[in-house]
Every structure is written in C-alpha cells, then in structure tokens.
Amino acid sequence: MADKAAARHSFTDPGFVLVDKPQGWTSHDVVGRTRRVLGTRKVGHSGTLDPLATGLLILGVNRSTRLLGYLTGADKEYVSDIRLGIGTHSDDADGDVVTTTDASHVTKAHIEEALTAFRGTISQVPSSVSAIKVDGRRAHERVRAGEDVSLPPRDVTIYECELLDFTPGTHPDIRIRVKCSSGTYIRSIARDLGVALGVGGHVRTLRRTQVGQFKVEEAVDIESFTETPIVQTPASIVSRLFETLELTSEEVTEVSFGRQIQGRNFATADLGAVLSSSGEFLALYKNAGTAISPVAVFA
After folding, report:
1. In sequence order, which residues have a C-beta less than 8 Å from that of residue 110 and are 6 or more positions away?
2. DSSP letters of 53-107?
3. Distance of CA 122 to the CA centre of its chain
4. Which of 64, 90, 210, 234 to pair with 200, CA 20 to 30 A apart?
5. In the chain, which residue ranges form alpha helices assigned H by DSSP?
6. Any idea which residues carry the catalytic annotation?
7. Are 25 and 50 in contact (CB under 8 A)?
8. Residues 44, 68: contact at Cβ < 8 Å?
9. pLDDT at 10
10. Averaging pLDDT over each range in 130-139, 143-152, 202-211, which range is the top one?
C-alpha cells in the first residue's frame, strides 16, 4: 500500500476527504495514510476519534485545513453500545475494570427514566483519558504515565438521547443514539448513566454517524481511499456549511486583492462563502454594513 501511495504524484489542490475510520486506528493514523496517498504533508482532521471508535472523520487537505475549525464546533451524532454493571478506569472497553455489580434488576423502564436526565444542557466531567490538555499535555498521556487526573466539569447540550436496544442480564447491554454539541463525551454519559442506575457502566462500541450536515454514509473506508483517492472540492463542502454568493468577474478580481465587495450582503448569517460564476470557492466573507469584507481568502 505504502509503495503505491508513494508512487503517486503530489496532490496540491485544496479539498476534503470523508473517511469512515476503522476500529483500532487513531485519527493520526488516518491522517498519516492520507498524507502518503496524496503525497502532501498538509492534512488535518476536524475532530479526534479514539482508537476504539469508528465512523465519520472529516479531513482537510492543503489550504482547506484552514476551514476545519468551522467543522470542529459542529454538532455530532453517535451510536454507542454500553454495558451496565461494569465500570472501567477509562469508561470504555479498553480500560481496566474497577467495579463489577450484578445489574440484572435493571429494566428497560429504569433506563428510559434515567436517560431523561441526559437531555438538554447538562454538566459533564470528561473522562480522565480524554484528549483534553492539562498544562500542555493530553490527559490520557498523564494517566498512562501514572498520574491522577481530575478534569473540571463542562456544560454540553444533548439534543437527543434515544434508547435503541436493550438486552437484559447480569450485565445488561444497551444501545443509544446521541445527538449532541461539540465537546460531549459519550464515555462520560455511559459512566454517569451507570452511576445513576447504581451499577456502573462503560462504552463497548462507539460510532460517529454525523458531523454537522455530513453523514457517515457519505464517507469512504480507508482501504478504498488508498486504492482510489476521492477528494471533494472545497465548494462542495462550504456550500453545506455557509450561505453562498456567486460573484461577477469584476468582483472575483476584488476578492483576489482582499478587498470589500460593495452592495452585497449575506441574508441568513453574517458569515458566508463567495464563489466564482463557475462554482469555485474563493473566500469567506462577512457582512460589513452595505458591503462584505474578507475573513479568509483562498483564491
């Protein structure tokens, strides 16, 4: 695979790659493979997925990496399998077991009732093995080095939290779907749901199914991408993130000099994307009175 990737010409255009990350790969692994396949160092992603997790990872290539920040803060959707009655130090299946409880008395009705507390704006303590930085180092790096890490709670918003499946037993298995704000930790929901039920719990599987308007069904698996690289144009992505304005040839020239465009405004938001008459993405602009002003020029 690596030899084939190295033999390709260097990819220099901006663009995006939607990958369905496999289990066992880090997000950095996916970035590294993409760099080799496209022959460019300028690849980044819009939000980390743990090795345990699968699902949608959006990569920016070359100049498009500058747009990733607008995707990082987008709402997310996840589907997760959770095992009740067993708590782990990492709140997922990769961690050491720290508590074991007979949870055979827990019913579907108990879970449905407990899940009501996980809807709306809630205060959540991230898992100690998260990627949050503590004094310049990732929390999970400090934990692996033997340090005790305690992270402060943060407010997150859970738009939907739905029980999809329930398998009773000594250690019941459940499946939930969560639509949430950026920064929400599903492992923390599993842990806190287990605490609410008095039995503990941890994530067994986690799949990111949506980022903003982008769904995992649109993504390609990494092996298929290696064989046949598919890079989406910036315009195809920004048109789903922002209101767009099509410019005249004279206005396109103004954009190339980083100038205001007079007599134009975005109708639905203060920030939007400007395109050429042929549909090429040129820049992000913002409303400025009776004109729009450049925020980031890509032309």
Report:
1. 197
2. -EEEEEEEEGGGGGGTHHHHTS-EEEEEEEEESEEETTSBTTSPEEEE---TT--
3. 20
4. 210
5. 2-7, 27-38, 69-72, 108-115, 139-144, 186-197, 222-227, 234-238, 249-256
6. 50
7. no
8. yes
9. 76
10. 202-211
pLDDT of residue 146: 63
Q: Is the pLDDT of residue 285 over 60?
A: yes
Rounded to whole angstroms, how far apart are CA atoms 57 and 47?
A: 7
Is the model's pLDDT at 138 over the cut of 90?
no
Q: Which of the 8 DSSP states describes residue 232?
A: B
The side-by-side arrangement of strands in the sheet containing 243-246 is 243-246, 271-275, 281-288, 291-297, 261-262
The pLDDT value given to residue 139: 65
Distance CA 103, CA 83 (A): 10
β partners of residue 208:
55, 78
